[in-house]
Amino acid sequence: MSGRKAHGWRIPIYDMQKDKIRLTIFTPTYNRAHTLGRTYESLLSQDCKDFIWLIIDDGSTDETKDAVRAWQAADNGFEIRYIYKENGGMHTAHNTAYENIDTELNMCIDSDDAAADCAIGKILRKWDEVRGKGYAGIIGLDASLADGKVIGRGFPKGMTETTLGGYYAAGGKGDKKLVYRTDIINSYPAYPVFEREKYIALAYKYRQIDKDYKLAVLDEVLCLVEYQKDGSTKNMLRQYADNPRGFAEWRVFCLKNPISIKRLLLDSVHYVSSSILSGDSHFIRKSPRKLLTLLAAPAGMAFSRYIKYKTR
To answer: Which residues does 9 contact at the CB level (< 8 Å), separation at least 6?
Structure first.
């Protein structure tokens, strides 16, 4: 696997010194001062402090900045970096993070989640095992903050490597924790930004990486998650209504790169729906799968009407 090429050039493997910080934990946040402290405490309790914490404040109007400044002044055992930006949505916060990360590896922990016990040490020990073998990074497990149970399904017994899309195509379920090589993730285009929209699926970038690289499997819980009532996962119909161009862009990618027949059919319906919501009357002509899109049009139209009704 070593020495793969992406986009026409060879991606170098970092020649890092053992005493250099190798991992950045980045946290996009928007008005989460009331939960961000939980993320901080989980990092503070890690047995390995070989990381940087990068906070991307996506335009918060609460006490986030004051809390971060206090943490920066404390003796944490790790560096805390803080960047404030105009509110633009999760994907724009990821774009900003990738532009400012200078460590070999990076991992996102959301501002309402917590790093699992000993997660940093587990990541770095695993990376020591597989570094230089051509992997894009590591895939690990998320678990519920409430009861510690793995989100969705774990990894099949004996699985040592996979792609994110390949895991789901094989029957995998639930969010997984991704640790990427920074040079690799930055060799792919940034998330597209659409005026007045604030969402595009983060998998838009991950699935591009899937085409060229695999991830080493770490069968350990790395992050404890809690889905908020006002979080994007709980409000997908509203996301569909408010960000139709971003979703249409994502569905075009999925139609070009299907992971299963079932998913292809669902993406066709969603593509039609998002195109209608965005006011694009030329969506069949623009589709990479015109016949399938035409067949999915009735269901997509019905779904768009349902979204409008539920989000009035």
So the answer is: 187
Between CA 297 and CA 289 the distance in angstroms is 12
The domain boundary, picked from 178, 195, 227, lies at: 227
Tens of pLDDT, residues 253-268: 999 999 889 999 999 9
With 0-12 CB in 10 A as exposed, 13-18 as middle and 19+ as buried, what is 43?
buried
Measured CA to CA, the distance from residue 252 to residue 288 in angstroms comes to 7
Structure tokens at 21: 């910080």
187 and 139: one domain? yes
Tally of structural domains, the chain: 2
Residues sharing a CB contact under 8 Å with residue 35, sequence separation 6 or more, in sequence order: 111, 112, 226, 228
Contact 38, 109 (CB under 8 A): no
Residues 163 and 283 in one domain: no
- The domain boundary residue, chosen from 227, 257, 281: 227
**pTM listed for this prediction:** 0.90
Q: What is the extent of the structural domain holding 154?
A: 5-227
Tell me, yes or no, whether 248 and 203 share the same domain: no
Using CA atoms, how far apart are residues 45 and 29, in angstroms rounded to an integer?
A: 21
CA distance 257 to 204: 11
Asked whether residue 162 falls in the same domain as residue 283, the answer is: no
The predicted-structure confidence for 194-246, as pLDDT tens digits, reads as follows 999 999 999 999 999 999 999 999 999 999 999 876 555 558 999 999 999 99
Share of the chain above pLDDT 70, in %: 92
Same domain, 191 and 288: no
139/215 Cα distance (integer angstroms): 6
